[in-house]
Specification:
The complex is a heterodimer of chains A (about 325) and B (about 160). With about 325 residues, chain A is α+β, with helices and mostly antiparallel strands. Among the domains of chain A are: about 55 residues, Uridine Diphospho-n-acetylenolpyruvylglucosamine Reductase, domain 2; about 100 residues, Enolase-like, domain 1. Chain B has two domains: about 80 residues, Ubiquitin-like (UB roll); about 70 residues, DNA polymerase, domain 1 (Orthogonal Bundle), CATH 1.10.150. Helix content of chain B is about 35%, strand content about 15%. In chain B, strands 2-1-5-3-4 form a five-stranded mixed sheet, covered by helices on one side. In chain B, β1 and β2 form a beta hairpin. Classes of the chains: A alpha+beta (about 325), B alpha+beta (about 160). Chains A and B meet through β1, α2 and α6 of A and β4, α3 and α4 of B.
């Protein structure tokens, strides 16, 4: 780890002022930044600790059940919050399937979105070809070990996937990521927060240097929602694929469905075409799988990951079924 | 560049500690190398194994994933702080009774995690214990006995509290 100086921000505007300096990085939960510094992925001259900004860690329920979750709220606190568990089961489930109990006591929801790909070439201690680590150096995973890599939205320059579980739930929920910078506040749809390689393989997300995530905003409750995570172990492992689904039913017909797949692209991958086709489809009919297959048909396998296409399809269908079977809870 | 040292005050196992440290010092290195509390172990140093689990303000965390600077003003409990003059903590005793370890390297982290797991109320079933203890790896794979120990300690502590 390279030397850095440490200071603690007492207020968000103080942090923003310090963060304008290109050599400054913010420290929240620390569960990513410390590893980046150990691996040489980041080497800030100065670390500004924002973890005690109490103005950014509140979990608030607003009118009509909408919620505003401060960016510094801890993952466990969000997942176990009664309003989140009741109104947004997909988010609660996604969080509780992320990392471990200890890490979730440290990690914040804002920081979770900023985690970077788990691609072994990106995280390597040696210098390997990786356009994210060294722009222009190529992509070792493209022809290398890519069984965990993308099946959607990849280019020859980068085949990495974004590993966050909560991000997939937030994409399915059409959540907003509220960001504050020197010039004020802006709101970014969660499904567009992470970048695809066509936007520049060296990028991870749309956050500008010095900007601070201040909150996550959730719109109307999605009680009929579920998160399915497929992995090599039952617990404490990244997803091979995951699916976050929200459904509204009208009798045995689908009124609306939102489906986001995780660990299949460098951003949570919404099945837009399937979602359109599912409107009006009968629960349990062959139309459901047919709708999913339209989007799954657009997947492109790498050398070692064709199995992920099948897993992604089946994960989406199983998560949909969980939503169909969920007892609509009383509000 | 050279970085200015940071000063911190922290309560560890009930005793006040003050230190001046390189900002890079993690809580784990502070405990082990500066204070010689060697119970918390450095297994992976990447937040993956849980051998460094300690409590900060009562919550279980990975000591390798926190800068010492971040615990300024906080209360830290390590495995060394669990036993009292009356004897071992019930979770420590349960790990002995249930044979919850083989080489013992992961045990301090397992026990600190188990104490928190019981306090959080995540011991309703074997499956729940396995899920909420999954952040602590045991390369000897004493997992069945660890689950037994957590279950036994939870039952004993519930009885004692009743």
């Amino acid at each position: 780890m390279n030397p850095f100086s440490y200071s603690r921000a007492e207020r968000a505007d103080e942090a923003l002022q310090a963060g304008a300096d290109a050599a400054v990085m913010y420290l929240a939960g620390g569960t990513e930044l410390l590893n980046w510094m150990r691996l040489g992925i980041a080497a800030p001259d100065r670390v500004v600790d924002i973890s005690r900004l109490s103005e950014l860690n509140r979990i608030e329920t607003l009118d009509q059940g909408a919620m505003r979750i401060g960016a510094l709220a801890k993952l466990n606190d969000i997942a176990l919050h009664p309003d989140v568990a009741r109104n947004y089961p997909v988010l609660s489930q996604a969080i509780l399937k992320a990392a471990s109990a200890q890490l979730r006591n440290l990690a914040t929801i804002g920081g979770n979105l900023l985690q970077r790909t788990r691609c072994a070439y990106f995280r390597a201690e040696d210098t390997l070809s990786c356009n994210k680590r060294t722009p222009g150096s190529g992509c070792a995973a493209r022809q290398g070990l890519n069984d965990k890599h993308a099946i959607f939205g990849w280019t020859d320059n980068c085949v990495a996937v974004q590993p966050s579980d909560p991000a997939v739930a937030l994409a399915a929920l059409d959540a907003a990521v509220v960001v504050r910078g020197q010039s004020g506040e802006r709101s970014i749809p969660a499904r567009e927060f992470h970048t695809l390689p066509v936007q520049g393989p060296e990028r991870h997300n749309v956050l500008q240097h010095g900007e601070l995530i201040t909150a996550i905003e959730l719109a109307a409750p999605a009680k009929r929602s579920a998160y399915l995570k497929v992995r090599e172990r039952e617990s404490y492992e990244y997803a091979i694929v995951s699916a976050a689904v929200t459904v509204e039913l009208n009798g045995d017909r689908i009124k609306t469905a939102r489906i986001a797949l995780g660990s299949v692209a460098h951003r949570p991958w919404r099945l837009d075409e399937a979602e359109r086709r599912l409107v009006g489809a009968q629960v349990g009919s062959a139309d459901v799988a047919a709708a999913i297959d339209v989007d799954i048909g657009k997947a492109r396998a790498l050398t070692h990951n064709a199995h992920k296409i099948v897993l992604a399809r089946n994960a989406a269908l199983r998560a949909l079924e969980e939503c169909f079977n969920a007892q609509a809870q009383r509000s | 560049m050279t970085a200015e040292p940071i000063k911190l005050h922290v309560k560890i196992n009930g005793s006040d500690q003050a230190a001046t440290l390189d900002p890079r010092t993690t809580l784990l290195d502070f405990l082990r190398e500066h204070l010689h509390f060697s119970g918390a172990k450095k297994g992976c140093n990447y937040g993956e194994c849980g051998a460094c689990t300690v409590h900060v303000d009562g919550l279980r965390v990975n000591a390798c994933m926190i800068l010492a600077a971040q615990v300024d003003g906080r209360q830290v409990t390590t495995i060394e702080g669990l036993a009292t003059k009356d004897g071992l903590h019930p979770v420590q005793q349960a790990f002995i009774d249930c044979d919850g370890f083989q080489c013992g390297f992961c045990t301090p982290g397992q026990i600190m995690s188990a104490v928190a797991c019981i306090a959080e109320g995540h011991t309703g079933s074997d499956a729940e214990i396995r899920e909420w203890m999954s952040g602590n790896l045991c390369r000897c794979s004493a997992y069945p006995q660890i689950v037994d120990a957590v279950k036994a300690a939870a039952a004993k502590m519930k009885l004692a509290a009743a």
